[in-house]
User: Fold these one by one.
Assistant:
Number 1:
Amino acid sequence: MTTKKYNISRIVMSLALGTALTSCSDFLDILPMNDVVLENYWTEKADVTSEMNSCYETLEHSDALTRMAVWGEMRSDNIRMGASVPNDINEILKENLLPSNPYCNWAKIYECINRCNILCHYAPIVQALDPNYTEDEMRANIAEATTLRSLAYFYLIRTFRDVPYTSKPSIDDTQQYVLPATPFNDVLDSLISDLERVKGDAVRRYYTDDSSNAYQNSCRITRWAVYALLADLYLWRGDWDQAIHYCDLVIDFKRQQYQEMLEREGNVNNIDLIDSIPMILTKPIGTTDCGNAYNEIFGTGNSFESIFELYFNSTQSQKNTWVSSFYGNNNNVVGQLSAPDFLFKDVATGSNNVFKRTDGRAYEASELSSSRYAITKYARRTVTYSTRNVTTEKDLNLSSSRRASEDANWIFYRLSDMILIKAEALIERAQEGDFDAAFALIDIVNKRANDAVNGMRSSTLNKADYADSKAAMEGLVLEERQREFLFEGKRWFDLVRFARRDGDNSRLINLASRKYLENVNAIKIKLADPNIIYFPYAKSELKVNPLLKQNPAFTTGEDSELNR
């Protein structure tokens, strides 16, 4: 990872030695691969640091980041065609997904997994050789790599369901690295077990909050990132108590951070308690314009609310091309993707069914351009507007600036995740008082977005509309997650999670099909297959791994013999 001021002088060596998925430079061919690694490389702390950096760097690579975003967002009701749409993307949007589609390729994600496996294998060896590399540092590095590996596998199982799973490294070309697919729940259980084992070794903070390097507390794995991932894993596993427990740990930490800020600075006008949880205000105390929360969370990045995000800047080689190409950039307002009309049409007039007219997330995430709703979340660096007396979009007096470079951070977990994961777990647990507690949490996120804090206006949600029905509460949390996490690579996974829990695809079909204007019935019929909500294994992967059996939803048509 090329995170700001890290020592990355050894990354090039690490990229050559770290995995059998990449080729070696000619100068390394003088010795066998194992001799190079064991005798000349894995000997000191700096070698582990270099490999740790490369684990992050692999996730930052456009091949990895683009796939994670495509897998989590593209098939959802958030996304439709934009401008100059490549055919591969267009086919996914039309639910015409084939094993030959390049977005079925998972190589870069497995490269990250293998780098993490290699680090976990060699770190104890280095610790025994280098007296400057302490056992605590080794354990922290293993916890960091284990969490990144778990995150990568989590993306794979949510996308493909059953995937080849191993925690052993592939170090040289003499190893057999062909594995059958491990069932979804078995992988999920392994990820939870791995993180439970290492959670206590993860670093709490790399720097104090007043340090110029404090951004690294959210662009590297910390204990709070481990907890956030565990909360999400337990949510998918259906262990509601554990999901709630880990959300509470992170929320309590944010409360602690807020108190430290108050003690250090005396006054914080852009963060305030909203029903006991500190959140960045969309309109700081003493100001009149909204947009502050967006500017800090998505514009600047590494905000108070951040738990884990990938870091990008204008000087590093890795760029966030997902945002610039698919959402839009300084030259092209509409990227390869846009949003369906039902999400944003007539929000300011009060006639939209998704957003209230005072909900700033609608104005921050999109703008109308050439008859399309361009995606502006992440693409904008700043936005300001007013929702005091909105009846038309002109009343917003919206002003914004767009990124001139491909340097938008990509957020995996932030405070809103913890609030809404906890709310969902409470709804599913459905004990006495859980619906009321879940509604209160959802209302916190909604109040911030509608500037309904500090007595500015009433909440836009009415508890009586939801709190007596589990189905209504499930619908509410799904709606709020859509509003809060628009275009953040989560929506399709949300629909898949509920479909797995429901035991059928009815809810997913009803929601995902809202974006279609033609062939709606045919797409609904196609999505009814319980296997179709996952991606097929790539055609190229089936050729090299005979132990993989294609998802049965994709065993007819193109190369059907190979797919079986």
Number 2:
Amino acid sequence: MANPHIARGAAARIRTPIIKDIAVSAILFLVSRAGVLDMFPFGVAFFAACFDINVAYLGVAVIFTSLIISGAGIATVKYIIAALLFWLFDKLRPDSAKTVPIEATACGVSVCVGGMFALIADFGDIYDILMLVTEGIISAMMFLVFSKAYRLIQTRKNRTQAAKDEIVSVAISAGVIITGFSGIVFPLGIKLTSAAAVYAVLTIAYHSTLSAAGSGGLCIGFMTSMVSSDAFVSMGLMGLCGLFSNLLKSFGKIGAAVGMIGGLAAAMLYAPGSALPITLLEAGIGALLFVLTPKKLHNFIQAFFSSTLTIENVSLETRVKDYLASRLGQLSSAFTALNACFSDASEKRLKMYSKEIGAMFDEVSERVCASCPKANKCWQSEFSSTYRMVMGLLNKIEKEGVLTAAPQEFKLKCSRSDTFIAEFNHVYEIYKNDMLRTGEAITNRDLISSQYKEISSVIDGISTEIEDGFVFREDFEEAAMNETDKYGINLFEISVVETTQGQLEIFAGLGMGSDLRRAEAVFTEITGTPIGYSGTEKNGIMRFVSKAKYEIDFAVKQQCKDYSRACGDSVSVFKSDDYRMYFLLSDGMGSGKRASEESRLTLKLLTEFLKSGFGVRNSIEMINSSLCLKLTDECFATIDLLSVDLMTGFSEFYKVGAAQSFVYTADGVDTVFSASIPAGMLKTVKVQEQTKRLVDGDTILMISDGVSEAGFTTVRTEWIKKEITGLYDNMEDMAENIINTAIRKSRDTVVDDMSVIAIRLNET
């Protein structure tokens, strides 16, 4: 990822040294003196990680002076060449190479290349090459260590805590700096490195946690003794003393100092007669210097080891509550849309039902009442009571299936009651058969049962998703709290959710004015997945999501049937929250306004369900049972649905009575056929999924039957296969050309609505 830390030098040209360069140069001098196994890799690593490259000439001079004084001899040439090579790399590298891993690698390679020049002059055997590679690896690792420590120092004013890895980095860096004092011995054999090591361990133990004190002591103990065989003894001793100091720090600086001396005394008692790398006198001097350190300096040091962050993760209960509220809200939205569609449908249905009932009553009255002398009285002056009685007969026949006899009230009113009942039974049978022909024979009970079944399936899916469909990544949350603080990002709330497909959602509460690009970079580094800002919730929490591997280039072209004002085909394209791109094409039966309404209703419902997170199969089955409650004759619609997973490239085709689609890959052109009749014709519909794995550059073509049936040849779709293999810079040109070719093959007439969706998968 792009390195989000503060730049070491932003100037574009070499500058003259200033006062603040003195302290960094002094540290570089000490670090360059630190050696291990006759190697001095630390100076170049510190130079690359912390020294301002715009005064690199000063750093090279300091490294040269330090190595000469330390007696590095001919090896000095190796490190000077390495420093110059990294300086050159920093000046010539592109912006894309400004990342910590690349810089660390460049540092290690520079040391190896510089060492090759030295080997040319004095080559021994293969061991020299192995040691050179080892030195390059050490330099790269120390670059990372120095970078973390330097970043903590640079950002201490805006920090609320030091992360554990930063404390370890500071401890290792301190150990290397202290090693630079090697060879300086005061009277009574007091080694400056030992006293400084005690002081450093006490400082870390006093201002940090127990675990940080122990690890800091281990690091400093090892780094300050790595030139001798006592390295591991010193490491264990300083780690133990660090723990004792931290345990007694509640008694103040004196308590921490007593803990240090106590730890050393315990080691002496445990190993009587053994020569420890640190004497009581050296430990006492280091402890005394620590106690005498002014409070102001301790407060300054405290900025590097602040207490643990006070922000808290959102509780599991709250997170689950919010998630459930979100999912149920989506569920509510989908059924609200369904209700809106059927509220409108109910009004139309009532008008249609009233029209059919009125026609049936007219038919019966013409057969029975036309020659009756009381006809005018019954159907005009007493219309209300007559209509009420006839509606009573309708209710009874709908319950019993047939009228065996007229009710007593009806017999008293109608002088031809028996004839009326006989004709009513006959006309009702005709009415019922007509309803059967148009699909109305499917009972409300069956349809409601089907709807309930689909709703149950949807809710079961949500239940499974809640139980197994996601996990909260607390490891990422803890890392995010530490890392954002390093880069000056004020984070007061964090929640990281990972789905079973490996997709990440990060809900972060960031302070006003936070750098979103830097936050994206930090979250990307933590998770190892490209993360991008998605939006801000109503409560101000910002949502970040893992970026998709693929993006879609697509185009939609439609052409109405000749002399038709409305296209009977409808198209919907949208992207869901789970990194899927949906392409929907529906062809209403026939053409014109009526077909357009049918296809638009189908896609409106399907889109609402899919956006709410329902499965494709459940959504189609619910819509099919809904369309069975059709308002007019032949209210059918095809469903052609393509779902593309932008994370993996897997694509799923669902075809319900739709025309074939075409997939162009490196292996050729495949055809995807429909395995079902249009939705709304039968109570159940066969929803068969067809899956294909797509990669960068693959092309998909979705068409309506107006395109697939264009032409007058036996195999009408062969021309489409040739068109999809053509070289098109964009999908707009492909869709346009296919529509024009279809019209031309139909002798410049459009006998049916034409729709084309041209899709190409591109890797981001």
